[in-house]
Amino acid sequence: MGISGGKDSAALAIYLRNKHPELDIEYYFSDTGKELPETYTLISNLENYLGKKITRLEAAPDSPEDSFDHFVKVYGGYLPSSSARWCTKKLKLEPFEQFVGNDPVVSYVGIRGDEDREGYISRKPNIQSIFPFRRNIWSEDVIQKVLQADAIPRLRSHYEALSEPAQHTRLLPVVEAPLSRTFSQTQKLNALLAADVRLFNRVVFAMLRGTAYPLAQAAEFSLLDNDENLVRADIFNLLRRSGVGVPAYYEKITFEVDGKQGEYARSRSGCYFCFFQQKIEWVWLYEQHPEKFALAQAYEKDGYTWMEESLSDLIKPERIRRIKLDALAKQQKNTFSTSAYLLDVLDDEEEVGCASCFI
């Protein structure tokens, strides 16, 4: 299990330790060298709670510089961006896959039940992703194989063998229904999950036999009985009740603009200069961690910037005022319980841009 420093991966470690203590999980943290201090505090707190060390992975262990600075030089000063995320590949994915090697591995991923995204799926056949927070614990590639047209006879056979005869009338028409424009894979998946999550998990587990997936080698798998669906509020509750605590950069801080009050915080873990940050988060960094902002600003040279405007322009007083007013307007329009700056599409765990995007 990868620990990113964000809320979801930390909560997943706590959740599985409490609910499935029989799992012997190895924890790791891909250290870019550019994390906020709160990230390292969380790692330390988790180690104390889990009673295990979290292995630190470095992308350039033999370099005199930290991993990020090493690869900035390798790429000639070219900064990562949403269209060229070399940081994810070089600092997260490659160290993880080298660490795993060729051993069969189950990778537990902290994507929540209220998130509409898949997360990282390795191209290496020896790594299989499992999503314990979701009602559907299986990755997209597994679901595609299980629900494809030529798998229907096997799917039916396993449902007949693993379910009660009284269930067949209700289940088998769904099992045998082919995918079409009016009955999508998502619809079929949801129908089977709604009928019986645990039964569906047992059928999928049986269908993995004979494949190259790591779980094909397992005689049993305790998460087959998982049928919970944890959402954002559950994650914060897990962290607070455990005593590990919520990373401080998620805690909202009040700001004032034109006599009005708003709130800001980080919506993600990861590097303090993450290019996926919203403008209000850059302002948060400038005002709450000015030393880190200055370091981020120092990377902007030779025409390379973290986004479409430079950090020097972003911190001009009138620009900060406008960013805060825009953030305040979004917060006031937001009808949900969470603040507007915590947009689902950018909600951390991890996590379009860093470790959290795949662990």
Secondary-structure element pattern, one letter each: HEHEHHEEHHHHHHEEHHHH
Average the pLDDT over all residues and give the rounded result.
90
Low-confidence stretches: 335-353, 355-359
- Number-wise, the strands total 6
Question: How many helical stretches?
Answer: 14
Major sheet details: 2 strands, parallel
Outline type = globular
Kindly give the count of domains.
3
SSE-based structural type: mainly alpha
Cα end-to-end separation = 7 Å
Describe this structure in words.
The protein is mostly helical. The chain folds into three domains: 7-138 and 229-244 and 351-357, HUPs (Rossmann fold, 3-Layer(aba) Sandwich), CATH 3.40.50; 142-225, no CATH class; 248-342, no CATH class. It is 43% helix and 7% strand. The chain is built from 14 helices and six strands. The chain has helices spanning 7-19, 37-50, 67-74, 86-100, 140-147, 152-162, 165-176, 185-195, 197-207, 232-242, 279-288, 290-298, 311-314, 317-333; strands spanning 28-30, 55-57, 105-108, 127-130, 253-257, 260-264. Strands 1-2 form a two-stranded parallel ribbon. The longest helix is centred in the C-terminal third of the chain and has 17 residues, at 317-333. The chain is globular and about 70 Å long. The protein starts with 6 loop residues before the first helix and ends in a 26-residue tail after the last helix.
